[in-house]
Amino acid sequence: MEEQWMAHVALRSSRGKRRNKNEDAFYLNGDYPSLDTMNTEANRKFVVEGSHTLWAVCDGIGGLNHGEIASQRTVQRLDELRSRLPGRDFSITVQDWIAKVDEEVLHCAEGGGCTIALLFIDDHTVNYAHVGDSRIYRLHEGLITQLTRDHTKVEMLLSAGIIQPSDVASHPERHVIVRSIGASPEIICTATIGEPIPLCNGDRYLLCSDGITDMLTNEQIRDIAGRAEDAATCSENLYSAAMDNGGRDNLTIVTLDIELQQNERADNTFNSEDKLDRTIREDTATRFHINDSIEMNLQTHIDFSSQTVYTKVTVSHSISQ
């Protein structure tokens, strides 16, 4: 059965306090900024129903070397990826698309490049991929997980055990990106593809540029995202906290709250209970040699949160006169 779900979406994006222009770009399931509107502060919230939705954040790199062109051109080309993904292998389709966009950005951005963090939701699964240091977080049942791992020099040094986590924030090469779209004609750009995640009611996903993550620790992101009642509050509070902490770079944050529709959850629960009831009856009849002349009365309580079933079975024998 196809899941019926909706996503509550909220975006905040601006050039921050110190930058003259915004090289961040976003993609909201078909909506993205033009070069003329990238410097306009963005504040959006809406609800999307259905499946096969695509979301992304890009961060232009290269400073004066047209990073905004690279990021805008990349989100502009996401319409093509969105149309190709349904029914196709996510990893292969994304890698093919990345290769094409990488080549295009090399020719149009004149030395600029960009990162990307993208998330695709189909009927049952959340798929994601990234290039660079734009990140994706998942908040699930109160626990937050950083799904992506930065393609940076300090992350490589950290993984190799050369530096410690406490060294990252002050390391002189902490902003050196080792993988990006449009980086070099001599390097074939590939994305890191994450493991698919089952679509779960109540999950919250964050897609953000390093303008957010450089200003906030993972602990701060966890606390702010965990306390926010809805997607709009989450994006607004993370954006405001990053600005309060300096807002030294362009900032973009997209929050998605997943909601399975109530009637679908009720149908699924009923079907599960009905199936379980039949299973218990069949198992009880077999174990206790119960035939058609014996009546069974089952009182079953199912605790789905702990996956525990409590059953009281009353058996009575009907005697023919």
Lay out the secondary structure.
Elements: E1 5-14, E2 24-28, E3 42-49, E4 53-61, H1 67-76, H2 78-84, H3 90-108, E5 113-121, E6 125-131, E7 135-140, E8 143-146, H4 153-159, E9 192-193, E10 197-198, E11 204-208, H5 210-213, H6 218-227, H7 231-244, E12 251-260, H8 262-287, E13 294-303, E14 308-317
Helix pairs in contact: 1-3, 6-7
Short recap of the structure:
With 321 residues, this protein is an alpha+beta fold. The chain folds into 2 domains: 5-260, Phosphatase 2c, domain 1, CATH 3.60.40.10; 264-317, no CATH class.
Structural write-up:
The structure is a single chain. By secondary structure, this protein is α+β, with helices and mostly antiparallel strands. It folds into two domains: 5-260, 4-Layer Sandwich (Phosphatase 2c, domain 1); 264-317, no CATH class. It is built from eight helices and 14 strands. A six-stranded antiparallel beta sheet has the order 3-1-12-11-7-8. The longest helix has 26 residues, at 262-287.
